[in-house]
Amino acid sequence: MRISDYPFTEAAASLVRSAGYSLESLLGKTSFKTARGRAAQRVAQAISGTISESAANTEAEQLTELLSYPLARIMVSCLDDSILLRRYALAEAKLAYRRMQEEKEGLEAIANDLGLHPQGPGPYMIHFSEYIRAAHRMHSSKWKLTNRDLQQGYLTITEEELKRIMEEAAREKILKGLPLPVDEKTCASLQEYLGPLKEQLDIIRARDRVDLGRVEEGAFPPCIKKMLNDVAKGTNLAHSARFALVSFLLQINMTAEEVVSLFNTSPDFDEERTRYQVEHIAGASGTSYKPPACATMATYGNCPGEDELCRKIRHPLSYYERRMRLFKPLLPEKSQEPGT
Q1: Are 179 and 76 in contact (CB under 8 A)?
Q2: Is residue 241 very low, low, confident or very high in pLDDT (cuts 50, 70, 90)?
Q3: Residue 157: in which H helix or E strand, if any?
Q4: Which residues 6+ apart lie within 8 Å of 291 measured at CB?
Q5: C-alpha to C-alpha distance for 138 and 164, rounded to whole angstroms
Q6: Is residue 122 pLDDT above 90, yes or no?
Q7: Residue 247, SS3 per DSSP
Q8: Which domains does the chain possess?
Q9: How far apart are CA 114 and CA 91, in angstroms?
Q10: Is the pLDDT of residue 329 over 60?
Q11: Mean pLDDT over residues 208-233, rounded?
């Protein structure tokens, strides 16, 4: 196990502490400029979704990779954006997961550091309490404890399943403690990196606002507004709520790509799987799915409460259509060519 590959572990933290570098030197010395650059790259790529591998073959390269992690945590703390914090933690965890695929001997050591204590060479036995703590945010039915054989408090998982719950445990560990209590002087010393990162964040926010604005968000029913608000906060939606939201947005002419982009702040975001599910609901399999009616939404606990219009309609799409009639007089008319 190469410690620099898993900088969130206690072994990595101990190695950084034992090196004895002061924060002032990490932030200011020319000799650590490469580490600061890699830290900014980690954050920038996390904003986009995926942190790339970095060459770490020599001792110096491994040290750069190791030091870039606490520096990246300082940078995201200076930016202090809740969505960025979740994206960053998720991207770091996914990087660790990709590295786990090549891990030969250190997998159990990493698992132990994350509070998981798998037994056996694989498949593994793991205590149900550790399993629940790591897998409680994973909504697919395969992860439900009721769908697992439980014997004397232990259940069996494959090596791939162990890696997946380790990824989720890593995400929670990385997110814990963020944002750090950094002072203005520290953030000012990193301004050359924070400026471009803030611009990148602003572009992402503006793009997301434009995507949502192509339809009239103000006409959305309360249930859809609540789901969108939860997604924006990085909350994982239940399967029934996710289906209702996706099918609704597709029906009001958002593209599959636009809908996929809305979910990239979710803790369990998997772009390939999300795209497959969205395109399936959109009709890739030959069947286009409609959003559920209000009664069904209420049955599954996806109705946050009715407003006055809700009580007059029976379907979220009907709500949207009625509200759009009110919005149309307020929308700017299309400009006409001279002579028409």
Answers
A1: yes
A2: very high
A3: strand 154-157
A4: 243, 244, 247, 248, 251, 315, 316, 317
A5: 10
A6: no
A7: helix
A8: 3-189 (1.20.930), 216-330 (no CATH)
A9: 17
A10: no
A11: 76
